[in-house]
Design a protein that fits this description.
mainly alpha, 0% strand, 256 residues, ABC transporter permease
Amino acid sequence: MLKLIKIKSFLTEIGEITYFARRFFKELFSKPFEFNELLRQCYSIGNKSLLLVGVTGFIIGLVITLQTRPTLEEFGAESWMPSMVSISIIREIGPVIIALTFAGRIASGIGAELGSMRVTEQIDAMEVSGTNPFKYLVVTRILAATLMLPILVILGDAIALYGSYLIENIKGEVSFQLYFNKVFDSLEFGDIVPATIKTYFFGFAIGLVGCFKGYYCKKGTVGVGLAANSAVVFSSMLLFIIDFVAVFVTDIFFEI
Protein backbone atom coordinates (compact mmCIF):
# COMPACT_ATOMS: atom_id res chain seq x y z
CA MET A 1 0.00 0.00 0.00
CA LEU A 2 2.82 2.37 0.89
CA LYS A 3 4.55 1.64 -2.43
CA LEU A 4 1.36 2.44 -4.33
CA ILE A 5 1.07 5.76 -2.51
CA LYS A 6 4.69 6.63 -3.36
CA ILE A 7 4.18 5.69 -7.02
CA LYS A 8 1.01 7.76 -7.17
CA SER A 9 2.77 10.72 -5.57
CA PHE A 10 5.68 10.41 -8.01
CA LEU A 11 3.40 10.24 -11.06
CA THR A 12 1.38 13.19 -9.76
CA GLU A 13 4.56 15.24 -9.43
CA ILE A 14 5.60 14.32 -12.97
CA GLY A 15 2.24 15.54 -14.21
CA GLU A 16 2.56 18.79 -12.25
CA ILE A 17 6.05 19.45 -13.64
CA THR A 18 4.78 18.76 -17.17
CA TYR A 19 1.99 21.29 -16.67
CA PHE A 20 4.55 23.71 -15.20
CA ALA A 21 6.72 23.32 -18.34
CA ARG A 22 3.66 23.83 -20.56
CA ARG A 23 2.88 27.06 -18.72
CA PHE A 24 6.50 28.18 -19.16
CA PHE A 25 6.32 27.87 -22.96
CA LYS A 26 2.97 29.65 -22.96
CA GLU A 27 4.29 32.57 -20.90
CA LEU A 28 7.60 32.66 -22.80
CA PHE A 29 6.02 34.02 -25.98
CA SER A 30 3.52 36.36 -24.33
CA LYS A 31 4.04 40.01 -23.42
CA PRO A 32 5.55 41.71 -21.49
CA PHE A 33 9.10 40.42 -22.08
CA GLU A 34 11.30 40.84 -19.00
CA PHE A 35 14.59 41.46 -20.83
CA ASN A 36 16.25 43.36 -17.98
CA GLU A 37 15.47 40.64 -15.46
CA LEU A 38 16.60 37.97 -17.93
CA LEU A 39 19.96 39.70 -18.37
CA ARG A 40 20.32 40.08 -14.61
CA GLN A 41 19.61 36.38 -14.10
CA CYS A 42 22.02 35.38 -16.87
CA TYR A 43 24.77 37.40 -15.24
CA SER A 44 23.92 36.13 -11.78
CA ILE A 45 23.69 32.45 -12.76
CA GLY A 46 26.72 32.54 -15.05
CA ASN A 47 28.94 34.62 -12.79
CA LYS A 48 28.15 32.63 -9.66
CA SER A 49 28.95 29.34 -11.41
CA LEU A 50 32.08 30.49 -13.25
CA LEU A 51 34.69 29.71 -10.59
CA LEU A 52 33.06 26.41 -9.64
CA VAL A 53 32.87 25.26 -13.25
CA GLY A 54 36.47 26.33 -13.91
CA VAL A 55 37.85 24.44 -10.93
CA THR A 56 35.72 21.39 -11.75
CA GLY A 57 36.87 21.34 -15.37
CA PHE A 58 40.52 21.76 -14.42
CA ILE A 59 40.37 18.85 -11.96
CA ILE A 60 38.57 16.67 -14.52
CA GLY A 61 41.42 17.16 -16.99
CA LEU A 62 44.09 16.47 -14.38
CA VAL A 63 42.44 13.34 -12.96
CA ILE A 64 41.55 11.72 -16.30
CA THR A 65 45.09 12.19 -17.62
CA LEU A 66 46.78 11.00 -14.43
CA GLN A 67 44.56 7.91 -14.24
CA THR A 68 44.79 6.96 -17.92
CA ARG A 69 48.42 7.70 -18.77
CA PRO A 70 49.97 4.71 -16.88
CA THR A 71 47.71 2.28 -18.76
CA LEU A 72 48.59 3.76 -22.15
CA GLU A 73 52.29 3.71 -21.25
CA GLU A 74 52.11 -0.07 -20.78
CA PHE A 75 51.09 -0.43 -24.43
CA GLY A 76 53.34 2.35 -25.72
CA ALA A 77 50.31 4.38 -26.77
CA GLU A 78 50.98 7.68 -24.99
CA SER A 79 50.53 9.51 -28.29
CA TRP A 80 46.81 8.61 -28.15
CA MET A 81 46.34 10.52 -24.89
CA PRO A 82 45.21 13.89 -26.39
CA SER A 83 42.69 12.18 -28.68
CA MET A 84 41.26 9.93 -25.99
CA VAL A 85 41.00 12.64 -23.36
CA SER A 86 39.46 15.21 -25.70
CA ILE A 87 36.78 12.85 -27.01
CA SER A 88 35.93 11.61 -23.50
CA ILE A 89 35.63 15.11 -22.08
CA ILE A 90 33.78 16.72 -24.99
CA ARG A 91 31.31 13.91 -25.59
CA GLU A 92 30.31 12.87 -22.10
CA ILE A 93 32.39 13.57 -19.01
CA GLY A 94 32.54 17.35 -19.32
CA PRO A 95 28.84 18.06 -20.00
CA VAL A 96 27.52 15.60 -17.40
CA ILE A 97 29.84 16.46 -14.49
CA ILE A 98 29.62 20.21 -15.10
CA ALA A 99 25.81 19.96 -15.38
CA LEU A 100 25.67 18.07 -12.06
CA THR A 101 27.84 20.74 -10.46
CA PHE A 102 25.62 23.41 -11.99
CA ALA A 103 22.53 21.63 -10.64
CA GLY A 104 23.96 21.53 -7.14
CA ARG A 105 24.67 25.25 -7.24
CA ILE A 106 21.79 26.68 -9.25
CA ALA A 107 18.83 24.33 -8.69
CA SER A 108 19.23 24.55 -4.93
CA GLY A 109 19.72 28.31 -5.10
CA ILE A 110 16.62 28.89 -7.22
CA GLY A 111 14.57 26.49 -5.09
CA ALA A 112 15.61 28.22 -1.87
CA GLU A 113 15.13 31.72 -3.30
CA LEU A 114 11.65 31.16 -4.70
CA GLY A 115 10.72 29.04 -1.69
CA SER A 116 11.64 31.91 0.64
CA MET A 117 9.57 34.28 -1.47
CA ARG A 118 6.62 31.90 -1.30
CA VAL A 119 6.94 31.44 2.47
CA THR A 120 7.21 35.19 3.12
CA GLU A 121 4.21 35.76 0.80
CA GLN A 122 6.15 37.95 -1.64
CA ILE A 123 4.80 35.93 -4.58
CA ASP A 124 1.25 36.35 -3.26
CA ALA A 125 1.84 40.10 -2.96
CA MET A 126 2.99 40.25 -6.59
CA GLU A 127 -0.17 38.45 -7.70
CA VAL A 128 -2.39 40.82 -5.71
CA SER A 129 -0.63 43.89 -7.14
CA GLY A 130 -1.36 42.74 -10.69
CA THR A 131 2.19 41.62 -11.53
CA ASN A 132 2.72 38.25 -13.18
CA PRO A 133 5.17 36.51 -10.81
CA PHE A 134 5.48 33.47 -13.06
CA LYS A 135 6.65 35.61 -15.93
CA TYR A 136 9.05 37.66 -13.83
CA LEU A 137 10.45 34.97 -11.53
CA VAL A 138 10.13 31.63 -13.32
CA VAL A 139 10.45 32.31 -17.05
CA THR A 140 13.57 34.45 -16.67
CA ARG A 141 15.35 31.92 -14.43
CA ILE A 142 14.59 28.90 -16.59
CA LEU A 143 15.64 30.73 -19.75
CA ALA A 144 18.81 32.02 -18.08
CA ALA A 145 19.80 28.52 -16.92
CA THR A 146 19.09 27.15 -20.40
CA LEU A 147 21.30 29.77 -22.07
CA MET A 148 24.14 29.84 -19.53
CA LEU A 149 24.88 26.13 -19.07
CA PRO A 150 26.12 25.48 -22.67
CA ILE A 151 28.52 28.43 -22.36
CA LEU A 152 29.78 27.16 -19.01
CA VAL A 153 30.23 23.64 -20.39
CA ILE A 154 32.29 24.92 -23.33
CA LEU A 155 34.43 26.93 -20.93
CA GLY A 156 34.77 23.97 -18.56
CA ASP A 157 35.76 21.63 -21.40
CA ALA A 158 38.45 24.06 -22.55
CA ILE A 159 39.86 24.34 -19.03
CA ALA A 160 39.74 20.54 -18.65
CA LEU A 161 41.76 20.11 -21.85
CA TYR A 162 44.26 22.67 -20.60
CA GLY A 163 44.59 20.75 -17.33
CA SER A 164 45.21 17.58 -19.32
CA TYR A 165 47.85 19.38 -21.37
CA LEU A 166 49.70 20.44 -18.21
CA ILE A 167 50.05 16.80 -17.09
CA GLU A 168 51.17 15.74 -20.56
CA ASN A 169 53.67 18.58 -20.65
CA ILE A 170 55.10 17.57 -17.27
CA LYS A 171 55.10 13.81 -17.86
CA GLY A 172 55.85 13.61 -21.56
CA GLU A 173 57.20 17.07 -22.45
CA VAL A 174 54.52 17.62 -25.08
CA SER A 175 54.29 21.16 -26.45
CA PHE A 176 51.10 23.21 -26.34
CA GLN A 177 50.81 23.36 -30.13
CA LEU A 178 51.39 19.62 -30.63
CA TYR A 179 48.91 18.67 -27.93
CA PHE A 180 46.06 20.81 -29.22
CA ASN A 181 46.78 19.92 -32.85
CA LYS A 182 46.12 16.30 -31.89
CA VAL A 183 43.03 17.34 -29.94
CA PHE A 184 41.45 19.17 -32.88
CA ASP A 185 42.47 16.48 -35.36
CA SER A 186 40.62 13.84 -33.32
CA LEU A 187 37.41 15.82 -32.81
CA GLU A 188 34.66 15.68 -35.41
CA PHE A 189 31.39 17.47 -36.03
CA GLY A 190 29.49 14.55 -34.49
CA ASP A 191 31.44 14.86 -31.25
CA ILE A 192 30.83 18.53 -30.58
CA VAL A 193 27.31 19.31 -31.83
CA PRO A 194 25.29 16.59 -30.02
CA ALA A 195 27.20 17.23 -26.80
CA THR A 196 26.45 20.96 -27.05
CA ILE A 197 22.77 20.50 -27.93
CA LYS A 198 22.08 18.27 -24.93
CA THR A 199 23.48 20.90 -22.57
CA TYR A 200 20.54 23.15 -23.48
CA PHE A 201 18.20 20.40 -22.30
CA PHE A 202 20.31 19.98 -19.16
CA GLY A 203 20.02 23.69 -18.39
CA PHE A 204 16.29 23.72 -19.08
CA ALA A 205 15.71 20.73 -16.77
CA ILE A 206 17.77 22.27 -13.96
CA GLY A 207 15.99 25.62 -14.18
CA LEU A 208 12.56 23.99 -14.52
CA VAL A 209 12.93 21.72 -11.49
CA GLY A 210 14.49 24.45 -9.33
CA CYS A 211 11.68 26.90 -10.14
CA PHE A 212 8.96 24.26 -9.73
CA LYS A 213 10.17 23.17 -6.30
CA GLY A 214 10.57 26.74 -5.09
CA TYR A 215 7.40 28.19 -6.63
CA TYR A 216 5.18 25.55 -5.02
CA CYS A 217 7.12 25.38 -1.76
CA LYS A 218 5.07 24.48 1.30
CA LYS A 219 4.72 26.90 4.16
CA GLY A 220 7.43 27.17 6.77
CA THR A 221 11.22 27.28 6.83
CA VAL A 222 11.33 23.48 6.66
CA GLY A 223 9.64 23.67 3.28
CA VAL A 224 12.39 25.94 1.94
CA GLY A 225 15.06 23.42 2.89
CA LEU A 226 13.07 20.57 1.38
CA ALA A 227 12.53 22.57 -1.82
CA ALA A 228 16.27 23.23 -2.22
CA ASN A 229 17.22 19.63 -1.42
CA SER A 230 14.61 17.98 -3.61
CA ALA A 231 15.45 20.35 -6.49
CA VAL A 232 19.03 19.05 -6.56
CA VAL A 233 18.03 15.38 -6.25
CA PHE A 234 15.27 15.53 -8.86
CA SER A 235 17.25 17.60 -11.37
CA SER A 236 20.29 15.30 -11.02
CA MET A 237 18.14 12.25 -11.72
CA LEU A 238 16.57 14.03 -14.68
CA LEU A 239 20.02 14.85 -16.09
CA PHE A 240 20.96 11.17 -16.27
CA ILE A 241 17.68 10.34 -18.03
CA ILE A 242 18.17 13.15 -20.57
CA ASP A 243 21.78 12.09 -21.10
CA PHE A 244 20.76 8.49 -21.80
CA VAL A 245 18.11 9.59 -24.30
CA ALA A 246 20.57 11.98 -25.98
CA VAL A 247 23.28 9.32 -26.32
CA PHE A 248 20.75 6.76 -27.58
CA VAL A 249 19.33 9.14 -30.21
CA THR A 250 22.81 10.25 -31.29
CA ASP A 251 23.93 6.65 -31.69
CA ILE A 252 20.93 5.84 -33.89
CA PHE A 253 21.43 8.98 -35.96
CA PHE A 254 25.08 8.30 -36.72
CA GLU A 255 24.45 4.63 -37.42
CA ILE A 256 22.08 5.68 -40.13
